Amino acid sequence: MISGKFFVAGADRRIAITILILVAVAILVPVLNIAFPPDSALHVPSYMVALIGKYLCYALLALSLDLVWGYCGILSLGHGAFFALGGYAMGMYLMRQIGDRGVYGNPILPDFMVFLNWKELPWFWYGFDQFWFAALMVMLVPGLLAFCFGWLAFRSRVTGVYLSIITQAMTYALLLAFFRNDMGFGGNNGLTDFKDILGFNVQANTTRSALFAASALALALGVFVTWRIIGSKYGKLLMAVRDAESRTRFLGWRAENVKLFAFTVSAVMAGIAGALYVPQVGIINPGEFDPANSIEVVVWTAVGGRATIVGPIIGALLVNAGKSWFTGVLPEFWLFALGGLFVFVTLFLPKGVVGMYDQWKAGRGHRLKAAATGDAPPLAPVSPAVESARAEKGWQVPSGGPEPAAAE
Amino acid sequence: MSKSGTILYLDGVSRSFDGFKAINNLSLVLDKGEMRAIIGPNGAGKTTMMDIITGKTKPDTGEVFYDGQIDLTRHDEAEIAMMGIGRKFQKPTVFESHTVEDNIVLSLKGPRSIFPALFHKRSAGEQRRIEEIFSTIRLGDKRHDLAANLSHGQKQWLEIGMLLAQDPKLLLVDEPVAGMTDAETEETARLLKEISKTHSVIVVEHDMHFVRELGVKVTCLHEGSVLSEGTLDFVSADERVVEVYLGR
Ligand SMILES: Nc1ncnc2c1ncn2[C@@H]1O[C@H](COP(=O)(O)OP(=O)(O)O)[C@@H](O)[C@H]1O
Ligand SMILES: [Mg+2]
Fold first, then answer.
1. A308 in contact with B at a CB cutoff of 8 Å?
2. Residue of the nearest CA to atom 1 in ligand 1?
3. Chain B residue numbers touching A404 (CB-CB < 8 A)
4. A225 and A134, same structural domain?
5. Per DSSP, which regions of chain B are E strands?
6. pTM here?
7. In a domain? residue A363
8. Most buried residue among A37, A157, A249, A315 by CB atoms closer than 10 A?
């Protein structure tokens, strides 16, 4: 079918454009920040660099959720935990870079350990003075947690709401654990007062710009990797498990392994997002494990549009921009606005902003074609059969997959 | 009874759900290369029997052997599928958001682990196999359509095509002509007869015209066990079968 091919071309073009934009932003924003004086019209102020850099990390987190939720129907309500673990791994590296410049001047022990009267560095802090080791842990720790958690959950065939609840319980348990001082991660206060990253002052404009560029490039890479995964036979299998898990089993596929791979890759992506986030905001504390954070990620993804790759990025940027604005103007109403937005999207935009755009495009394509040929314009761009098949599955199972006839 | 030479061997199988015996001391033997039709009223346990054979449900008691020596109760769905048992569900189950062709691609015999799937490139052999299946199930002109857009009957065929792609030795086909037009029903009978030349097949069906069309040995299930077995004429003349079907 020609329109099917058109869609594929359209979707691929959209991914290519997204990657190009991200690479361009990674170069341009730092240049506009550093090379242009503050009074120039082209100057991007440093606070904007920091703010957007933070949003890009959120976008990578939302993209990681899309891989499991959008494409495999696993509604994780604990993805913030992987983000926070990546963040802590980076935070530990940054703490050890402080060296003897801390308040207590101890060359080995971070201030909070001196304060707690600890005499020795706990074993799990070893190696974090090396960047390569920390970078490895940024991926390994969330990846390993996701692997173990997923291995148990998917093997026992925990699905749907139950799975969502235990992911939420996982992040809550980590929240409580990291709050404890004797865990050795700075307790309530977390890790902060960072000085250097790779020998550069984290506060410096150039370092901030470099971190911004790294975030944009990491997101571009995330988009590329996700797109390649989704386009592979494995990606089709992932969606097949989402739509008809038992069918895949009776064809000989191990649905639990299919899910486990996506879940682990997704957690690694979330960990990288967290690691880029921490030096830009200058702190990581147990609050990042708050279950509400993970739920916010779900809202971003839903707003942008599940199973679209680009949607969650747009959702994360839009909702967080809205949050920044709202918390400036009407801080006490933000949570209500967020809740309302979620309800609105669930009811009226089940495919999010990107899905709505696709539908509008497809509808316009039909109308144009109809106008050209004089046919009556069909109202539904997606065939009723698809719609009803999707409607039956309800809101938990995303209605992803290629849309027919997106006349791009 | 000897298991040798059988593709499927069920002996004294029982399974209850909350005290209700869905399968009750069921014994059934299928020879290699045989096609068998299973009839029986709703709730007779036909689908549950398939669940037991394919590893979805474990029996409480009884023996379930495949190919004379493999104890199926020790294996799960994916393993059983890989051993060569393919199953079509009562409600046609295809991957709706994929194209017809991708449905076949995901079913094709081959490695079932993650990394080969990530880096999979379609081989010429696979392409040939896909074409073969399309010529058997006659959906070649729909290959780029979404499976969701197929008619009910076409979905049934696609699912049968997916079974064939698996290249199983034994096919379990649950109510393949439910909701089909007469022409489609006839076509399906032709398709199954074709398949039965090279495979062992169990077909569950209510439609007596269709069963007659198949022209194979019939087993009638009732309340979880075999009520009658033989030619369709023999079974439909059996008083107990008449009683079950016509009510008492
Ligand atoms: N998983 C299950 N849990 C409870 N009851 C079941 C289950 N599977 C089947 N049954 C019951 O077993 C009986 C046989 O069902 P089934 O095998 O679907 O019959 P048939 O396919 O012959 O119409 C029915 O009464 C059904 O309710
Ligand atoms: Mg049934």
1. no
2. B17
3. 146, 149
4. yes
5. 6-17, 20-31, 35-39, 61-66, 70-71, 85-88, 170-174, 200-204, 217-222, 225-230
6. 0.90
7. yes
8. A315
